[in-house]
Structures are given as structure tokens and as C-alpha cells.
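Q: Entry one of two.
A:
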Amino acid sequence: MLASPSSSARGVVFAVIATLFWASNFITPYVTGEYGILDVLLVRYLFTGALGLIGLLLYRERLRQLGPRQWLTGMALGVIGYLVYSASIAGSVIFGGPTLIAAFIGCVPVLQALLGNVHAQRVAWTRLALPIGLLGIGLSLINLDLFTSPYAPADGVLAGIFAGLAILAWLSFSVINQNAVVDLAPRATAAWTCLMMVGAGLVAALLAPLASAYDLLRWQGAQWSTEGALHLYGWAALIGVSSSLVGAAAWNIATRHLPMVLSGQLIALESVFASLMGLAFVGRAPSALETAGLLLVLAGTARAIHIILAPAHSGVAPTHRKGVSTK
């Protein structure tokens, strides 16, 4: 059955929280200090993995509600949605600046809305035209300003490749996770999030010795208690908790209450939050075109929420969502 208005509203709130905290991924290249981006990413996910292990101990009773395949799926999602996604974003920010990757990530709602509505058509396609159009125009303005301003990317090709990888990672994560949470036991969401964290941490632990062997890390030669090292640990922990714990947990709750077509639209908010955070770290205000683009992205998102939360007027028969609580 369709989710009740209160359930859908709860899903929207948690989706907004998730996108806000996920936007912290975009500031990683700006907080490396005397270290490199690999140092921050690996330390972050080693910390995240350790935190996930602690969580699994705390939620061991709920962990027993998950089968071996769900364990492997959860850990694999952590690698895709955490490690690969964050590394791709960092690469795009380094080569293209903060607004290019944010604009690319903002394309995800269009792709995900199409995928979600193909899978379970909750909304007439004609009703999606306006919000998707607003998103498209907004993203076009951001890109137009970026490539005609003094802040043009250092290497647009590499930035675009990394941005494409980030989109692919997010779409893969979102589709697999959306289907997987349907079969989760109602109280197993926290354990599911911890499995993701452990998966990302395990791969980071495997990559760290390889990166060290090829002299790709600056962390190995420094003292562990220097001011720079403490700076590294602090930012790695803050971004790890914000994105990998709070963001992921909020999103897992949101996906229980929202169809993919709406959750996809809400991801547009991540591009807005990311742009604002990135611009704050580079020390400039958004231009007129960037501001207009961000406002159109917000307008498209708001319109999509209004349409999805009023399915009775969409002209589409309700679809059943197996295993998702409507309370």
C-alpha cells in the first residue's frame, strides 16, 4: 500500500538530513592539511570501519536477523557507496572545483526518477516534466557559469571522468540498497548501516599497505601525535561520522518511507549543500548564475515532493511496496 502522508513526510525529513551530512564528502580535498587526499580517505574509512565493528557488537542481536547474503550485500554497498563514491567526488573536486561535481551529482535525480518510475510507475510521466525541467535548467546554468567564469576547472576531462564515476557509484548503491532494505527486518536498519561501514573499512585496510608500499601516503613518515596528524584524525573522524554514519543511517530510514522516484529528486539537495560548503571553503560567494541554478534545483525538488506526496491526483494506480511499513 502507499505510505501515509505522515510516513512520507518523515521520509522527506530524513532524506534532507542525509543529503546535508553527505555533502561533507565534498570538502575532503580542502581539509588535507600537510597530508594528501589518500591519507584522509584511508584514515577516514579505517575509522569508519572500526566504528562499524563497534556498532555490530552493540546490535549483534539485530545482526542475527540478517542472512549471509545480506551481510555480503551490505558490506559491498559500503565499498560502492562510501569508498568509491567519496574517492570519485574528491578527484572531481581536485580537478574541477566544488561546483562542477555538485552539478553532476545534481543530475542523479533525473536519472533516478526515470529509473524509479520505470520500475514502479507511481506518477504520470507528464507530471514529472516540470520538476525534471527545473532541475535540468538549474544544472545547465551552473555548468554555463562554471565554464565561462574565472573559476574554470583545472582539468575538465579528468573532473568529468571522476564525476561520472561518482554518479555510477551512487546510482548502483541507490538501486541495490532500495531493493535490499525492502527485505530487511524492521529493526535491522542500524546493523545494516554498520555492515556498510565495516565493508568500506575492510577495503581501506587492504588498500593502506599497498598505498604505503608505492609511497603514495604522507601519513606513514610523520609522527602520530603531531599537530598535523591530529588535524588529519579530527577531519577524517568528523567527515566519517557525518557522512558514513549519520548520513547513511538517515538515508536508510528515508528509503523505508519513500519511493525511489521521490528519493531520487531529493538527492538534488546534496548538490545545493555541497556547492555552498565548497564555496565557503574556497572563500567566494556564488555568482548570479550559480545562485539562479541552485534556486531552480531547489524549486524542482520542492515541486517533486508536492507531486509525490499527493499520489491520488497523479492519475496512476497505487503500487504495493513489499515489506515497507506504512506506519
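Q: Entry two of two.
A:
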Amino acid sequence: NDSICCLFTTQSSRKSRAVRDTLRHVKVKESRRPGELHGPATVYVQVLGAGSRDNGASLYVFSEYNRYLFNCGEGTQRLMQEHKIKIARLDNIFLTRMSWETAGGLSGMILTLKDTGVPQCVLSGPPQLVLSVNITHVHFIQIFVSFSLHKKSKTLETFVSFLLVFHCIVFCCFRINIYKPYECFQDTKLNILKFNSAQLVKLCTPADPGPVFLVVDCPSEDFIQPLCTNHVLQRYQTGGSEDSAALVVHMTPESVLDTDEYKSWMERFPSSTEHLVMNEQTFTPHNTRSHKLQTQLNLIHPEIFPPLKLYKTKEPPASLRVPNVRAECLMKFQLRPKLEWQRDAIPSCDSEEFVKEAAEVPKFLEEVEECRKFQAAASKYPEIVFLGTGSSLPMKIRNVSGTLVNISSSQSLLLDCGEGTFGQLCRHYGDDVDEILSRLSTIFVSHLHADHHTGLIHLLLERERALNSLGKAFSPVYLIAPVQIMTWLNQYHDHCQQILSQINIIPSKLLCDGAEIPKVKTKSLIQAVLKKNDLVKFQTCYVRHCKNAFACSLTHQSGWQLVFSGDTMPCDAVVNMGKNATLLIHEATLEDGMEEEACEKRHSTTSQAIGIGMKMNAEFIVLNHFSQRYAKIPLFSDDFNGKVGISFDHMRIRFGDFPMLPRLIRPLKALFAEEIEEMEERRERREMKKTAEPPSNGESGTSRQPDEMSKGAKREQDDLNQEAAIKRLKTN
């Protein structure tokens, strides 16, 4: 197969100050003259995602000059952000194959690179990469200023980047050479040997051959034969013409590892070669900050904040005949200055330490004790599980939008599906995740900003896997979404993986009050959604956000009604649709006092969201979709009352919990007292600055809305391809 090298340049949408900070390391690299370049003195390979089901295999390669990423599945940038691995330094991304498992986080990563101010990045991978980049380029309008493509040959081609040499050997394998550094002059030896200045003597360290490591992705037994017979790889095995590989990274399922052919191939490497295995046979947590927060919140209310779990594969580990190391998050293999494993960066997840830290917070335990005096009686269903409560991009505490509604013990529905939603399900349900996926019949996508739908494809694929694993009959998901989503899904289906059989599309606009439903099949799909979920009504309405953005309302046969706002400014259409609702889940992206910014970005503040719930006469209001500046907790406004609660990732509530939720605020304020104080100080500085600034010559927030909507990582697709998308609706 050919390989593709794709160079794209970006244009930042942020202020120039952020761009200058980002470009500092770029200027240093550009200032080096060719004669000054030498092999890097420090190089290491570091595990990001160890290959677990919730964090697919991804590898980070560090040198002084560049940073490299192998594979970019969903959740990769969240891991990098949590563990302080700078995305801004990343300038090369390699994909071992073109699947959602390896590239699901690529669109989000590109958007983040753009907003961070990275001037260019090189993407390398199989031929479908160019199609994937084009899909991303079209779907998230003009996220690149330009990009150029470079086709490599079918067998062995080289990509040189600051003296690390990358060879694409076969479809699923990379070989990486590290150039040796300049020989070092040894002045101490000159003094010992007492040579005079007239003699010319070479007094240098011995030549240091650059080590080689291999990255191998062998996803199925179909790839074993070409891997075993590849003549280039044979050079680095026993009896080969090159120095043996220092490290072989196996991104290989256990079922493939356990075959005699693959075991024999591993044995051809000399005993000095290290083997790193990255697959689902890893049981260590990656997102330790989430585990820490959930452990501490669990002290407040064990039912509302259940402890997180790990998914453990039922597949037995392969019995390998060569020494090997199982991957763990942040584990390193140092290639220079000396070859060695380093485990000091591996994150620990000590629940006892997390509890001890919370217990030492002043007044926290007292507030918890007071809160626990009240016990609410709650029926088991419906049950709402918040999987992502943050906005814009995944961060270490809050993932992006996703809310699971368990209607009954056999039926579930998902409201939005941002990147990493499946990973959140894994961490919430552990080994029961397949059972939960098998119950999922309906997905509602509010709009086509990246933080609300880019987890969809992964979820569909994992749901199919779950049904197969459980031996249950397959049935497509009912996807209620803006019809424009089909442009993205059709292109991915045609060029990457076949997924259209996974869905039955129902355009959101056809569920608006008074909408005419043009086709009989669409009417039957709507009736099927209602019957499947025991609903009497599923309604949508347009909201004030981007083009083709919707809220939705579910009315159950037993009488309860749930309203989900999606992203919106205060909107009367939501009020009218949700009159006297049982529960309103409304976005509260920004704090009070930031109304102008909320208007510019077409979001709501805390008090605005509460105001919508009051006008609606909702029985209870839960706020979510917080700006990532409120990572742990938002600022509370004076409008908070006994009908308002705030959401956290992995928070689980039932309607009977409504009286308890406002009582959680006092222990939450105690636990996060330092963060609240810091946010209040920041608000005071902002207000003082605003007071000191001169008037803006009559410029209002609303006058800037068109410009603001045309910028940033969340810009939505236009309707240029709407007619084509409608024609491609294979389900209607």
C-alpha cells in the first residue's frame, strides 16, 4: 500500500499573545543552521494510551527538536492535557492504519493545534489519510489555510525530521532510526596523554550508532503473513544486515499475539530487543484526575457519585515465549543517552490518599455529615448519567457533551455524543459497558459542533461489537440529528469504514412542532422511536446558537418530561416546548457578569439558564456544559435555589434525588473553596478592568455575532452540501 504524508498549515483564531508563546520553540528550530544540527542527545518513547478499551494505543516520541505522536484515537488530547504533555510542541502525527480506533481524535487534535497557534503539522499514514483530512476540512469549514500532500512509494520511503528518520515499511509498521550525535571531544584525555599543540590526534568518544525502534500495528491474523515475510524487517532480526532493533512496539490484539506465527516472528529478534505490548490486556487507569475527583465526590453521596470502574477484558493473556513489557500510561523507554525502561512517570491512583486529602479540607467532613442527614427516596428509573459536562474540548476533569438517559432496565437514549463518550461509558460501567450499549436504541445530536458529535462513530462501532459479544440481534440506532451530519457520515462510510448500516436517520427538523413529514418511512421511524423508548412524544425546536441547532423534549408514557437545551442563548422556543417539564437540562457555559461574551458565543450564563427553567415552570433544573475555565466547579449565582443543581461527569441522578441536589452545594463549596476563591478574584479583576476601559464606541455584543461565529474550533458546516446530503440518505 502507498503511504501518505500530509502537511497542513493553520491560522490561529486566538489573540497574538497566545500565538507568540506557541511559536517560541518554532523560532528556535528555524534559527538553527544546517551545520549546527546533530543527533538529539535525549530521545524516549512514551506510552499515552496503553491500548485499553477506553484509551486506545497511542505513542509519544520525544526529542529536543521535535515531538511525534503515533495514532490519535479519541481521548488522546485529553490525556496529553491531563499529564502536561504539550500539544503545542506536536508537529508530526503518524497513523498506523486508517480506522476510528487510530484516528478518532484527529479532527479534535487538529482543531486544538489550530487554536494553539501551531503553524504547521505533518500527518503521515495510509492512503485514506488524504480523504480523512478532506472530510475534516469540509466538515469543520476552513480549519486549515492550506495543506499539501506528498505520496510515498509502496514499500520503503523515508521521512526525515530533525535527525530522526521514519520509514514506512508496510501498511501497519514504521521503522525509526535515530541519527547519532556528533562525536564529543574529550579534553581530559588530552591533558592525561600530554600531547603538545603541534600533534594532531583524534580524541573523541567512540561512534554511537543510532538505535532503531519499530512500531507494528497488526490488527488481525490477516496481517501476520506479510509482516513475517517483509524483507526490510528481517534486517533487524537475528542474522540481519543491520543492527538489531532496540525496541519493538506491538499494537496487536491478544488473539493475534497468541498465534504460533506471530510468536515465531517475535522470536526472530535477538534477546537484546525489548518488546512493548499495547492492547486491552492493561488494567491501569489513565484519567487519574477523574478518579480522584469522583472518589472525593463519592464521600458526599455514594449513589449520586458512584466510584469509577475499569473495563477488564475476558480474553486470556497470550503465553509469549520472549520477555515483554505490558504498556502502562506514561511508561517510557529511553533510547538515548542509554537504553532503559523508566516507570517514574506512571500515574498512581491511590483512593486512600484521595480520601485523606479531601478529609483534610477545612469544614468538608462537617458539611458532608450535615448533608447526609437528609435521605431522598428515589425510584430507579428514569436514571440520568452525565458523561460529559464541559464545553469546547475534552479536559482532564470534564469531558465534552454527552448525557445518557436510562429510561428503563432495557432501554436507553443518548443526548449528544462528543469525543470520548464511549471512554466515559467504560469508566462509568466497567465490565457492564457492553450490556449498557446493547440497550442503547436512540441518539440525539443537538448540532454539529465538534464537541457534540465526534464521538458518534466510535460509539456505533462499539455498540455493534457489544451486540456481537452478547449474542444479541443487531438493530440500527435511531439517529435524530441535523440532516447535514449525513455529509460527514457518508464520506467516512465511502472512504474509511462502512458505518451507514448502523443508523436510521431522522432529521431533527421533522420533529419540530408543526413540521410536515414528507416520507412514509420517516413517519414509521418516528413511531418506532416512540414505541422503543415508551414515549408519547419526542419533539425538537430550533435554538439560538449556530445554524441548524436544536433542543429536544421527551415525554414518557408515565407522564414525566425531560427537556435538553443543547447549546443556546436564552430561547423562548425551549420555554414553550418544555412547559411544566419534570426536568430541564440546560447549558450554563459562562458565569454571571459575562453576558456580553455569552451573547457573542451564543451561549447562556448561569442566571439566564435558571431563568429559562423558571419561565418554563420546570420542576427541577440541572445546569451543564460549563466552560472549561470552571474545571471543577462553576461559580454560584444568587439565583440558585431549591430547584437548581449542577452536573459533574459521572454524576447519576433519578427524579427522586431532586431535593438532595441543592443540599450538595454546601459540601461542594467546602471541597472546592480554593478554586471558588480563585475564580472570584479573577472575576473581580475582570470587573475592575472593564470599569477602567473606555466605552467601545457603541459597539455591542450582538453586532459581533457573525464574526465570532465564523471563528474558532467550533465553527459549523454551512448548508452548501445540504441537497447532496439529502439525496444520500440511504435510509429514507
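A: Comment on entry two: The first helix runs from residue 16 to 31. The longest strand covers residues 535-542.
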